[in-house]
Structure to design on (383 residues):
């Protein structure tokens, strides 16, 4: 038992926010609180949490989680839960390192030795997917994910959906599976048309077919299609997730460990999903700390399906990628569609603190420009 001595955070390229916690005996742990496009808001929240939690026992992870959730009156949402995630992941890493075990050992032990993974192709305006999918196949991936469309109107021409079908056919022709991300940018009049058009070509799943605030529309679509429905990146706690499970609106749940309060809540969400026979495929287009935390939790999760990786994703620009900021990037080697479970203690990665501190100096917060005024009348469209 040792009190928390310091909580630091580091804004680093391309769009990540890392958290380091040190206890009074010098034990350390790393977490990730990245919230794409809202870095400053999370940093402000971390400032408040730092003032509250320095001096508390670093071993009492659940007590700190519950204190954050229950004593603030206002709770949940992406900003609070991302800040909490950074702290929670760091505390789990610290504790596992102190005990000299991989984090998954604190969760009951592993149920698998390797995890199926997928990578992104195509970007926000998907194009040239056959060549990109071939490159991913050469990297060892057997599954990719791509956006279904660029921006769409509320009611667009049906012809705007045809390229999505052709892109899926091109990937499937390579012998690969493909998840198709509607990204919440496809509105109800178009979503059911697109799902119907894609179904004969057997996508692995369709993701966020509608925005998560439209639970009844998603449930109706789930009843109309045989394609598995995936969602969850914009749900931030088990209370957010519960109505989707109760409505049979989701087949594959995609919570983001950096947006749901960390290891503690991801573990609970996964267990809740298992009771509804729903698989878990964590959302993670983020940095190596968030991905390592996902891997540790999913190693101990029976209903795990597949893990998103940000290796080479279109957001990773300026020289930073998933293999940055760690001294053992080989842990992300993909073989026949899988990554091996890391053998090291804690999160299983070794953070290069010198690089983190160097790159954090003067780092700008990432801002999502979306599609800007993308509509023909100058209107804003969903990104």
């Amino acid at each position: 038992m040792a009190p928390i001595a310091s909580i630091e955070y580091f804004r680093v390229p391309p769009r990540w926010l890392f958290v380091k916690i040190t206890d009074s005996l010098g034990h350390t742990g790393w977490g990730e609180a990245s919230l794409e496009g809202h870095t400053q808001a999370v940093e402000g929240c971390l400032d408040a949490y730092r003032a509250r939690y320095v001096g508390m026992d670093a071993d009492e992870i659940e007590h700190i989680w519950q204190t954050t959730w229950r004593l603030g009156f206002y709770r949940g949402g992406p900003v609070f839960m991302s800040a909490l995630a950074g702290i929670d992941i760091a505390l789990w890493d610290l504790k596992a390192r102190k005990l000299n075990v991989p984090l998954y050992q604190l969760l009951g032990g592993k149920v698998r030795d390797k995890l199926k993974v997928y990578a992104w192709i195509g970007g926000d305006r998907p194009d040239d997917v056959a060549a990109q999918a071939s490159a991913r196949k050469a990297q060892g991936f057997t599954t990719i994910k791509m956006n279904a469309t660029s921006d769409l109107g509320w009611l667009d021409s049906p012809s705007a959906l045809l390229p999505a079908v052709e892109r899926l056919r091109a990937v499937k022709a390579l012998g690969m599976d493909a998840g198709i991300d509607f990204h919440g940018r496809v509105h109800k009049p178009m979503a059911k048309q697109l799902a119907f058009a894609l179904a004969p070509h057997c996508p692995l799943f369709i993701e966020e077919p509608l925005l998560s605030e439209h639970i009844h529309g998603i449930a109706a679509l789930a009843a109309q299609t045989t394609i598995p429905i995936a969602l969850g990146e914009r749900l931030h706690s088990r209370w957010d997730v519960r109505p989707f499970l109760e409505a049979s609106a989701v087949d594959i749940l995609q919570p983001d460990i950096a947006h749901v309060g960390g290891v503690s809540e991801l573990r609970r969400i996964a267990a809740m999903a298992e009771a509804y026979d729903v698989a878990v495929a964590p959302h993670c287009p983020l940095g190596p700390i968030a991905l390592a935390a996902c891997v540790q939790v999913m190693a101990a999760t029976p209903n795990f399906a597949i893990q998103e990786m940000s290796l080479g994703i279109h957001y990773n620009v300026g020289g930073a990628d998933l293999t940055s900021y760690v001294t053992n990037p080989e842990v992300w080697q993909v073989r026949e569609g899988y990554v091996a479970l890391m053998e090291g203690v804690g999160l299983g990665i070794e953070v290069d603190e010198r690089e983190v501190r160097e790159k954090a100096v003067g780092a700008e917060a990432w801002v999502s420009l979306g599609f800007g005024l993308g509509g023909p009348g100058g209107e804003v469209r969903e990104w």
